[in-house]
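Revision sheet: structure tokens.
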Amino acid sequence: MASSQPDDLVLPLSTAQESTTTRHHTPDLSELPKDVLRELWLTAEAETRGLTFEEFGAVLASVGAKLNHGLPSGVQPDTAQRASFFRSLHLSELALAHSCALGREVAWDCFFSLYRAPLTRAAVAMTGSANLGHDLADSLYSELYGLRQVDGQRRSPLASYSGRGSLLGWLRTILAQRHVDRHRRTHREAPLETVDVAAQAPSVAPIDLELTRLKHAIVRTFQDLAPEDRFLLASYFLDSQTLLQISRVLRVHEATISRRLKRLVADLRKQLLHNLQSGGLSKRAAEEALGTDPRDIETNLRSLLQTSQTSSFSDKTISTTTKASDSL
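Predicted:
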């Protein structure tokens, strides 16, 4: 493969080999409270993706160690920073990708139902041909499944997915790399007289314009949130509060907080899609916009979540739980 090949993970051939790999290569997660780790596991719905609690913990530990929990090299993260970093990841997609890398059938069924169609469309758009596009997409699926062997062992690029950006965005990047690799190989081998001059690419909206639209949609969506919803989001995602801590403040059971957070995140996604479409994007473009790396968006979520809140709720609740951090 070309140099654009991402890092790989050896796919185990048996349960025994899986446990051996995990036992020898799992970074330490002992500094992360077990209740927080369980929250992350439930949030990711890792069990339905085919990952055990221990396997998901190993994935998180590996990603945290690889990226130093989002901190500069040499900086030692504390427990709160570790938890905040893990909560910022696309946990469900992270669990799905690594379960697929381990060859779990339930994960692959979910993967194909979610990503086969958009990846095929992207491949057709890249190649400008339905036949070439389907061929490119199929070759990527084979690679992702681990049909390529190195030293007699199956390897899957999905193991290098870290969850920082959306899985769809990551997959499209890999697909584009493979398209470039294939184009270079094909054109090196093609006689000069058979090479046509490429047609001028259609004009597209500048990336800055897309980011601006996304930023405005985020602002509109968060400004419409009720004060208690703002508190839930800020406490859990920005202040690294546990479900138990939040439930004590609101005097409800932690299971209630978990259900409300899950419903709130789903509602936010729907509203964001609506606002993006009302801003001029198609449904497909709006869904792709949600895959943008959060680090590319210059928006202070803490400021948004603390704007226009009613004084009673803000003074009694948020002011007692907000910690020192000005942005994600």
